[in-house]
Fold this sequence. Notes:
291 residues, alpha/beta, six-stranded parallel sheet, binds the ligand Nc1nc2c(c(=O)[nH]1)N[C@@H](CN(C=O)c1ccc(C(=O)N[C@@H](CCC(=O)O)C(=O)O)cc1)CN2, EC 3.5.4.9, Bifunctional protein FolD, EC 1.5.1.5, multifunctional enzyme, methylenetetrahydrofolate dehydrogenase (NADP+) activity
Amino acid sequence: xxxxxxxxxxxxxxxxxxxxxxxxxxxxxxxxxxxxxxxxxxxxxxxxxxxxxxxxxxxxxxxxxxxxxxxxxxxxxxxxxxxxxxxxxxxxxxxxxxxxxxxxxxxxxxxxxxxxxxxxxxxxxxxxxxxxxxxxxxxxxxxxxxxxxxxxxxxxxxxxxxxxxxxxxxxxxxxxxxxxxxxxxxxxxxxxxxxxxxxxxxxxxxxxxxxxxxxxxxxxxxxxxxxxxxxxxxxxxxxxxxxxxxxxxxxxxxxxxxxxxxxxxxxxxxxxxxxxxxxxxxxxxxxxxxx
Length: 291
Ligand SMILES: Nc1nc2c(c(=O)[nH]1)N[C@@H](CN(C=O)c1ccc(C(=O)N[C@@H](CCC(=O)O)C(=O)O)cc1)CN2
């Protein structure tokens, strides 16, 4: 590796290692308790990106020996039908985890559906009870993407305690839980967003910068503190001049890697960790139901 470039935090390789460990654990749990952990995924419509993520989750479950129960609904499905399905899954003893793939079509109320999931099966960590446990620092199911970031930082032995962390983005899926998890790990946390004034001043103060703003290559080298850790949560599909499409993050990787100490790539960084953490949460929920 050229020493002037940042160290690459390889989420894909780490996710594969975690998933291999989960497979071994699932085999043991199956022989002890006589059934595998189960994950139900609800998907509405045929958004191609969501369909690809759901397929990825189902493939990962199959590889780990986790039973997956796919519920794929047409675009015009009603709120009531989804509520009834969630209620049935809440009662289903084969199902340890339930998730609603986001985003949902506009006519559906995602928040109300997420509230209906039994918090003990909330493997996406998006139910108010799960988020409340996070706020209080109690153990519980943590949202997958920020949990994946924390695991990456831990595995690469990146010190979080006492560091200045700036999270750019305030979504319920990433920005808010990410900030709370960093706080839980004793970082000094600032949340920035699209309305933040003097954003560059803030991001340049970050020892750990989390980009989760949903804007293609928004974080440029002049916004980054030299020798900092840059975590890119963005996933944006772009087309080049020849019409070829590829994924890029919220960070301008080619320039930022010249000044950061460590950086996650896109693809191959945080995204892969999301699925590994989902499997982790499903197994955690299963083990709790057996004890
Ligand atoms: N209910 C949920 N909906 C959504 C979530 C979520 O955590 N829960 N997150 C995203 C999408 N997502 C999982 O659902 C997800 C995103 C990215 C990846 C991933 O593996 N990315 C790879 C690239 C994959 C590719 O080539 O397309 C990477 O970054 O390396 C997995 C899952 C929104 N919805």
